TrEMBL record, chain A:
Keywords: Cytoplasm
Cellular compartments per GO CC: cytoplasm
GO biological process: formation of translation preinitiation complex
Protein name: Translation machinery-associated protein 20
Major subcellular site: cytoplasm
From TrEMBL, chain B:
Keywords, comma-separated and alphabetical: Coiled coil, Cytoplasm, Ribonucleoprotein, Ribosomal protein
GO molecular function: mRNA binding; translation initiation factor activity
Keyword hit for Ribosomal protein: yes
Complexes and interactors: Interacts with the 40S ribosomal subunit.
Organism of this sequence: Wickerhamomyces mucosus
Domain SUI1: 95-166
Stretches of the chain forming a coiled coil according to its record: 62-94
GO terms for cellular component: cytoplasm; ribonucleoprotein complex; ribosome
Name of the protein in question: Translation machinery-associated protein 22
Domain of life the protein comes from: Eukaryota
Subcellular location field: Cytoplasm
GO biological process: formation of translation preinitiation complex; translation reinitiation
One Pfam family cited in the UniProt record for this chain: DENR_N
The family this protein is said to belong to: Belongs to the DENR family.
Amino acid sequence: MFKKFTKEDVHTRTNVKSSVQRALKSKFVSQFEKLESVIDEIIPKKSAVELLKCEDKIQLYIVDDEVVFFQQFDELIPSIKIVQKYPDAFPSVKVDRGAIKFVLSGANIMCPGLTSPGAGLPDAPGYEKEKIVAIYAEGKEHALAIGKLIMSTEDIKSINKGIGIELVHYLGDGLWNFQAD
Amino acid sequence: MTEVIQPKEVLYCGVCSFPPEYCEFGASFKKCKLWLDENDQELFNKLYSDEALATATSSLSIEKQEKIEKDLQKKQAKEEAKQERELQKKLQSKVILKRIERTKRKHAIAISGLEVFEIDMKKLAKTFASKFATGCSVTKNAEKKEEIIVQGDVGDAIEVYITGLLKEKGLLDIKVEQIEEKKKKKPTTPAIPPQ
């Protein structure tokens, strides 16, 4: 989504009303329940959240010049910096070492990269499809990408073919390098 | 449901902005390695000791590993060459301040050659406008390149300002040159003799 993303793709920049901000926060928490205790740290009550409307109906939400989360359709997706800061709050999967290179150049993640010995998927029942997951890598501590499951994790294990996760946001993409000032 | 999650401090590489463990996949691995060596010895030892390298590569077959390594090296070499080229280009180019005569004793200054240095033209124009209290705008010149036009004879002040600006960016030997453009005299059209 953000393979090519620059300042020119931002159309408007506005402040978000505090009532909308409250709604956003509760929505974000309802999506990622473990964030409940820290949501006030991510978005402090008095802070001004800014909304950047961009190309392709992408909307970025910014606090203190840092992208906190974004949305294209309905669901909110956290930025990698937030995921790396609160790693336990988000569902996660792990890819093997061979896949890192491709993920970092923006490729969708194929099932074999998730099922090989170095990789890791959650135990059954796992995650439903369409879920937003943080992607970790074999031997690495931090997340390297955010993706959306195209198959449920159980399907990935059983079918083991084709695209398993659609990559949304990764280290070094346009959003990662985006500076909001 | 009320377990408190502590925020995790993540160190980011000063060269490529990734967390250091991913530097090896970036385009400037060598520089990143140097940076980490200087800034966080502990992590450096953890990531680049022989032991760590051995465990990291153990799960892949050797041929595959070699191939990936080769690809990465190629990419890195390419990126380095690119950066080198860009630096050369920056060093060679110069900024030109053209003094344009508008009417008698009134001048405008056109600044061109700035686009190489990654300077936000619009912002700079705004700064000039408030600094010199004049009109200042960004326009496209004859070669379809952007230039800044400042109203008023402020060439010397601008020269000082731009050299300062480039110095801040670490570019010391950039030429800032002032030239003058005389207003062309209108070619006198021969009067058409009345018939």
